[in-house]
Every structure is written in structure tokens, then in C-alpha cells.
Amino acid sequence: METATTESIRVQSLSQSGLSHVPPQFIQPLHTRPIPNNPSSTTIPIIDLFGFDPIHRNSTRDSIARACNEWGAFYVTNHGVPVTLLDDIRRVGSTFFNDCSMPVKLRYACNSGAAATEGYGSRMLVSSDEQNDGVQVLDWRDYFDHHTLPLSRRNPNNWPDFPSDYRKTVANYSDEMNVLAKKLLALISESLGLNPSCIEDSVGEFYQNITMSYYPPCPEPELTLGLQSHSDMGAITLLIQDDVSGLQVVNNSDGGWVIVKPVSDAVLVILADQTEIITNGKYRSCEHRAITNPDRARFSVATFHDPAKTAKISPASDLINELSPAKYQDVVYGDYVLSWYTKGPEGKRNLDALVLES
Ligand code: OGA
Ligand code: NI
């Protein structure tokens, strides 16, 4: 149980207090520590969408198929979202974390007792790791979660009003990301020979959340993670970051971690678990994590597109036949979310639990 005191503690205040060691609850067990491996020369693909110009559609679709097969994550450029809007959301978000006092920020504190509530918080992913005697390890991260779609969930009064264009910017960004996510799911569906609306129809109306993450400088980056290893729960995540590296994805060819270098103006696409189920495992969700560094705070904005809690998700019927039977159990999305929050993500454990024996 969290107490009133820990409720008001944020990682940023710990970092600013000038500790030279991280508190024990942030120390990862040996097997999850980010031991620096040889800097890999591999990088995830950068795909030019040419503004979705039909002339380029065949080649774009082929690049997407390759990227989804190899990584489950890729950058897109010429995506149609104004670059000024990407800069604006980075600016308003960083201003909230960097320039508001802690008491002002805590006015927006989320209810840490419940999963995924809207607002300013510090713990979201909690693993109770059997190999670590059930001890919970905390992420070196603060976040602000915004509920943005459907519109019935969007209440900008719950969001900061400083800087003055904060609320307007988040609302515009939500709308633009919604459009981009739909266009990308259409290309991803087509890249599997499916009808363009196939994945979107399976997901149903998008439940969209925008999570801004703030990773303060950490005195012992080799012992901690900004965000523990996980795959995202929903259908598709669109992420932008500042110029500080820290995000890593698993390289499917050797299982090692590869840093996702920031690419200014590009949007990172991350396939999430429901897309793996809908595509019957043809495309796997991408396992990722964030590491910390001692020098500079890092800022990112992740936009999640999820099914409704009541939606039942199953492999697309067009991909199932006698030779290629369903590989995943059907799941009610709300049940999936609940298991994720009760057990913790621990890589892709929750999705693995739905895999049918062949
Ligand atoms: C997430 C996530 C990565 C990052 O919020 O699910 O993976 O770089 N974020 O902040
Ligand atoms: Ni994630």
C-alpha cells in the first residue's frame, strides 16, 4: 500500500535532492539490469510515407511488411502531422515537468491506487518478480497520463493550464495521432494482404491515451531502468521523444537490446499486443524498455490506441484456415488490461499466456 507520503514523492524530486545512490526500491535484480552491451550498429527502419501518396503505396507497404516482420517497430517520416505540432507538444510537456513547482504539479496527481488513472504520477509498471522474492521494483520515471479519446473521456480541465496553450496542443495532437494511427493500421492490414480496414474493424472505436514520460537524470543508470521491459497492451503506439536517447527495443534476430536513436520530426510506430493477436502472430508486438543516464533528463510522448475494455479481440478470420489455425485465445480487452496491471508486464508474459498449444 502506498502511504500519503510516498504519494507525493516523484522521481524528479529524488533526482533533484542530489542523491549519489538510488534508493533500494529502484534497484533492478541482476538479470534485468541494463548491462551495456557492445554498441550495436543495427538500427530500426525509417520509412518515408510520402504523405500517403498512392503512387508510393506499394513500396511503402513492402517496407512496412519488412519492418513489422523484423522489428515490430519503425520510424515514419512525411507522416502528415505538422512538425510544429510535434515541437509544440514537446515544448508544453517539458515546460510542465521542468518549470512548474512540485506543489503545482501535484495538483494534478493521479490516484496511484488505481490503474491508469489520468494525471501526474510516478509508478505505473510494477513487477513482482518471483526471481526477486516478490519484491517490487520501481521505474525511474514520472509521467502525465491524458485520457483523450473517445471525446466522452476527454476533459481538458484535468490537464495543466500552463503553458497557456497546453490544453489546446494536447487536444490537437490527439486528433492528429488518431488520424495517423488509422492510416497506419490500414497500411499494416494491406501489408498482410488484408482489407485495409481489417485491423481497425477488429479493434473498434479507439480508446486513446497520451502519456508524457519524464526520466530524470539518474546517479546509477547501470542499476536502474526508466521503464521496465514490456510490450504495449493495445493495438498501436505512436511515440515521439526529445534528443536524449534511452528507448531500447529487442532485436528479434539475436534477442539483444538496440537503442532507438532519436530522429527529429519522425514518429516511432510500435506494434502492440492486440495487433499481434489480430494478425494471429504474423506480426509480433515489440518488446521495449527505457534506460536512464546520469546527465540529462529525457522526455517522450507516447500515444496509445487501444480497444474498448468490452471489446473481444481474436485473430482475424481472414488469416485463419486449416493450415493456419488460430494461435491465440480470444480475450476481452478489459480482462487483458487487468492481468497486465495485477501481474506486471515482465516482458511479454501476459500475451504469452494466451498462446494456444499447437
Ligand atoms: C510507454 C513507453 C517509452 C519511452 O510509455 O509504454 O514504452 O521512451 N515509453 O518513454
Ligand atoms: Ni511502451
TrEMBL record:
Report domain Fe2OG dioxygenase positions: 205-307
Which PROSITE patterns does this one have? FE2OG_OXY (PS51471)
Which InterPro entries does the UniProt record give?
Answer: DIOX_N (IPR026992), IPNS-like_FE2OG_OXY (IPR044861), IPNS-like_sf (IPR027443), Oxoglu/Fe-dep_dioxygenase_dom (IPR005123), Plant_2OG-oxidoreductases (IPR050295)
Q: Which UniProt keywords are present, listed alphabetically?
A: Iron, Metal-binding, Oxidoreductase, Vitamin C
Specify the domain of life of the species encoding this protein.
Eukaryota
> What is one Pfam family matched by this protein?
DIOX_N
Output the Gene Ontology terms for molecular function.
Answer: L-ascorbic acid binding; metal ion binding; oxidoreductase activity
* Segments for region (Disordered): 1-20
Q: Where are the bilayer-spanning segments?
A: none
- Indicate, by first and last residue, each region the UniProt record lists as having compositional bias (Polar residues): 1-19
Family the entry assigns: Belongs to the iron/ascorbate-dependent oxidoreductase family.
Q: Spell out the protein name for this chain.
A: Fe2OG dioxygenase domain-containing protein
